[in-house]
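Hey,

Quick one before I head out. I ran the complex with adenosine-3'-5'-diphosphate overnight. Inputs first:
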Amino acid sequence: HSGVLHKFKGILFSTLSSEGLLSSLDSFDAREDDVFLVSYPKSGTHWIAEVIESIPNARITLTSPIELGDISKFEELKLVCKRRVIPTHLIYDMLPVTIKTKQCKIIYIVRNPKDTAVSLYHYYRDNPNLPCIDTWAAFLEKFLRGDVVYGSWFDHLLSWEEHKNDKNILIMFYEEMKKDLSKSIKKITAFLGIYVSESEINKIAWKTSFSEMKNNAAREDSDQKHTICALTSNRNLVFRKGAVGDWINYFTSKQKRVFDELFTKKMKHSELARYFEDYS
Ligand code: A3P
């Protein structure tokens, strides 16, 4: 994996996530008002983060991902005075235990896996913190085997699906945000318990549109403190196309068949997966 990835508990991580940090996750001391922003990579994490940061008077601090860095991480997080919004790409089982016992609020964002795969393929190609990749076909095989950073998309979703009815967890869909962003923003603000007026909702929707976010990323310099994905602090690598259904430009009919067969097998008992039938 060209030295930029390492395996921990059978899952590939970036070397930016040290083994020391990964093995001490359970020593993280969650606060009751912490909010976790959880996703498989390329599912719309930056989008939701921007929505939350744009809420007027939210009095929150968006931190870097919990799994990014070394064991000094938790000391660093202790210094945050305001309500912390902490991103992560961890599977449910690896989430620090105090987050579960304190029932912290968790927003899990999920995106149809074919578009996620295409987006991750481009991330692999453009992001120096990820291994070099030859072809789309070779990447797709790795994706289906779960031989990519943060492991299998299927296993990630299944680990979170078990908790989809927990009252502290809000599941968001990328495709639903594309369809009706204002409605999605309302869901998020209501879940966080923050009142936002109709006109403020519209302002947030405008600010968090794909074009607006992409343009702002091009204007800003990368800011280490404003890192949402543990795989890069360069926002220019994030806003690529922002579309639903781009997978059609990549999958051959054979690749689609192989993908769908595995999907059917793996997601047989998944209710969340049924949502994606419209997007395959
Ligand atoms: P594409 O590569 O398909 O364009 P993450 O934030 O989890 O890394 O996900 C990145 C994906 O979300 C990218 O997908 C990116 O373009 C898309 N994205 C980010 N902001 C968006 C927005 N405001 N609207 C739509 N898509 C957005």
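The mean pLDDT is 95.

Talk tomorrow,
K.
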